[in-house]
Every structure is written in structure tokens, then in C-alpha cells.
Amino acid sequence: MSLGGGREEDSMLTRREALRRGIGAATMLTAGPLLASCAPAAVSSPTPTAVVPTATAAPTLAPPETTSIRLAAGACDSAIFGAERYLREEGFTDVQFTDAATATAIAAGNANIGNAFPQAVFNSVEGNGPKVVALGGLHPGCNEIWAQPSIASLKDLKGSTISVTSKALTNLPYSWMAMALKYAGIDPKDVNFVVQADADTVKLYLDGKSDVAYVATTAAAALKANPANKGHVIFSQVMDEPWKSTNCCFIIVSEPWYRANPIAARRALRAIYRTADTLATDRSDAAKLAADKGLFGGAAALA
């Protein structure tokens, strides 16, 4: 299928099949240095089906090597923090969740598995973070780059000034903007990235001191609704090809835990994918699940 999506057969894909195909994005991104090449991959758009499918009988697996599992999830990872029912069906009796960043939680020993942007995998490959294994894709992304009114596109960012808190691989705003620039034909070296560790980069953008701002998840909606924002979107992982046709995030697991518990890892992945297949499209259900677990600030923050 083409990257364009929109064809009738695309809409008939189950989420699980799309997720399986989405792992091609990981191959595409890890085939070369992060900031050197971002060629598109022929993967199908991870579009949910119009009708929520019913979970089907799964292949028989041996019991998990451990019955305890600790999972990390972000606010957009309802397939993880909503997976407790299926995790228990898979044989886990001690199921714990954290809303800490997955790589950080794994490094601290507070999570075995979770969802993360590809940079966490790249950082592990480079030997600068916890050793992890990428098991599969989870969902499309929500990253956006907003620019001042005078900037029409990514190609106009040559010579511009952008505030970041770091130029490290693990710094999501910098690494995503560098990838997007490279794909648009702009060398990140031709952009003036100003590093200020304690910077509020969105405020600097709103004050006109930075030409662009990178936002994701709830921050994207907040910036769009902010009356002080006079700019516009020049990059959208939701709308722009090839990004919208790949997964933004991947389910990663601690490598030592994976090697010690390969069946448990498979069962956990299956539970997460079963949740993705069956979770109601009403996001209020996901918000309630998160609130009940005390994640992301609890009910008041999720209201």
C-alpha cells in the first residue's frame, strides 16, 4: 500500500496489524545515524478500524517466568495503563504502573517495560542509556513544530534561532527538530540552536525570542489554544507524510529483564496489543483508568 493512506483497504486494517507493520519504522530509523538520514519507509498508516474489534483467542504460550511486572506509560499510552485486565489474564498477579519516563524508570529499576520515542532506543544503542530491546510499535504521534508568522515552512528555518535545553540525542525537542530539518533538506548546523538548560522554550517562542517551538501530547493542544500564540504549524506528525504513516513510539523493555523473562515479555506485549484492539474509542474511559491509578496528577489534572 502507498504511504498516502485513505484507501478503503487501509481502513480495514486492524490496529494490531498496523502496529506490526509499524515496526518497519524502527528499521527505517535505526538503519543509519539519527541525524544523517530519515528516508521514508513503505509502511501502512496505523489507522484504527471504524469498528472496535473483539479480541481473538491467542496462541498458547508457556506461563510467564515471573508474575510481577512494572510498566511505564505516558499520557497518550492508554494501551499500556489500560492493560491490567489482560496482563492478569496473561498470568501476572503483581501489576504496577508509573508515569515516569520509560527510559528513566527502567534505568532506576522502577519499570520493566513501557513506551518511548525512538531516541531512547538510539541512546541505548550508543551505550549512553539503559540497555533496552524494542518489541514493537504502539501508536502514531502527536509532535508539532510551531513557527513565527514570518516562517512559512521548515525550509525557511535556515539561519533561524531556536531555543533548546540541550543538543543531546535524548533531548526530544532537539532531536525531533533536527530529524525534521534534515528530511526537509536543511542541515541542522545551518540553524542557530541556542542551548539554555533551564529555558522555558515555549515561553521564549511566545515572547518572540525563539523562531519555533516544539510541542507534543497535551502541550500541543495548550499551545494551539493559547491566545498569545500568533504562529502556525510547520511540521505535524499527525498530518505530514511520511511521519503520519509510521509509529512515533515503541514498546521497549529492559534488556536484562527481557533475557531473563522472554515469555513474560511476549505475554506483556500481547496484553498491550489486546488492549489497543479493544479499548473504547471514548478517551474518557482511558482518562478514568489513569485517574484510578493516580497517574499524571490524578483525577483533578485529568478532568
What is the number of beta strands? Answer: 10
Largest sheet: 5 strands, mixed
State the helical fraction. 25-40%
Evaluate the radius of gyration: 20 Å
Q: What's the helix-strand series? A: HHEHHEHEHEEEHEHEHEEHHHH
**What is the CATH topology of the largest domain?**
D-Maltodextrin-Binding Protein, domain 2
Mean pLDDT, as a whole number? 79
Shape designation: elongated
Number of domains: 2
As residue ranges, the low-confidence spans are: 1-53
- How does the helix and strand content classify structurally? alpha/beta
Can you give a write-up of this model?
- The structure is a single chain.
- This protein is α/β, with parallel strands linked by helices and 303 residues long.
- The protein folds into two domains: 8-139 and 248-302, D-Maltodextrin-Binding Protein, domain 2 (3-Layer(aba) Sandwich); 144-236, D-Maltodextrin-Binding Protein, domain 2, CATH 3.40.190.
- Helices cover 36% and strands 15% of the residues.
- The strands form three sheets. It has a five-stranded mixed beta sheet, with helices on both faces.
- It is elongated.
- Residues 1-53 have low confidence and may be disordered.
